[in-house]
Specification:
The chain has six helices and five strands; from the N terminus they run αααββαβββαα. By secondary structure, it is of the alpha+beta class. It has two domains: 31 residues; 146 residues, Beta-Lactamase (2-Layer Sandwich), CATH 3.30.450. The protein has a five-stranded antiparallel sheet. A hairpin with a 4-residue loop joins β1 and β2. α2 runs antiparallel to α3.
Length: 187
């Protein structure tokens, strides 16, 4: 019985030491790395395109007016070119059903393509969150797609689709696929 108080003290000391060691371990664990320079540059470009185009398109998209949407998009693309900073991506505007209203192919007739079966499109429209995906063309070209919902009064009225060539982003920013997938564009 003489050893009982000393035994309890030893157990407490061991417990305190263990907690202290765990605290040190947690404190020394590297935090998750922040965004890379490539991620930041890509995010900045996507948000600049969104901020330049989306506000002007809201009425045309809400009204599902392809001619108005096409005219606005062509004007925005022209202003960007004239300003020395043309958009470095393909741009498509979809209505709330995933049907093309306009695309950034100046001079081309409006093609009313149906993207309603594409998961990336419907997820972005339904969840009202930016969705990213990668696609491959038949020739092996890798594309990165960013689907940005156009939201008015809490309702998805359409979608701004941006399509980037992965090789171009790698050359300009050094952006890798894992970095593309990590970029948070909802904030």
């Amino acid at each position: 019985m003489h050893h009982a108080p000393g035994g309890r003290l030893a157990k407490r000391a061991t417990g305190v030491t263990l907690v202290f060691c765990l605290a040190l371990l947690v404190g020394c664990t590297p935090s998750s790395p922040g965004p890379t320079k490539a991620e930041e540059s890509f995010k900045k470009e996507v948000l600049a395109v969104r901020d330049s185009i989306a506000p002007a398109l809201m009425d045309a998209v809400a009204s599902r007016e392809p001619r108005s949407a096409k005219k606005i998009l062509e004007k925005k693309c022209s202003l960007a070119r004239e300003g020395g900073s043309p958009f470095a991506c393909g741009i498509t505007i979809l209505d709330s059903h995933g049907i093309t209203l306009a695309s950034a192919t100046p001079g081309e007739p409006i093609k009313r393509l149906d993207y309603s079966r594409y998961e990336v499109v419907m997820t972005a429209l339904k969840d009202r969150k930016v969705v990213k995906a990668r696609l491959f063309l038949q020739d092996g070209t890798r594309l990165y797609v960013v689907a940005i919902p156009l939201v008015r009064n809490g309702e998805s009225i359409g979608l701004l689709g941006l399509v980037f060539d992965a090789a171009d982003l790698r050359n300009r920013f050094g952006l890798r696929e894992d970095e593309f997938m990590r970029v948070d564009l909802d904030g």
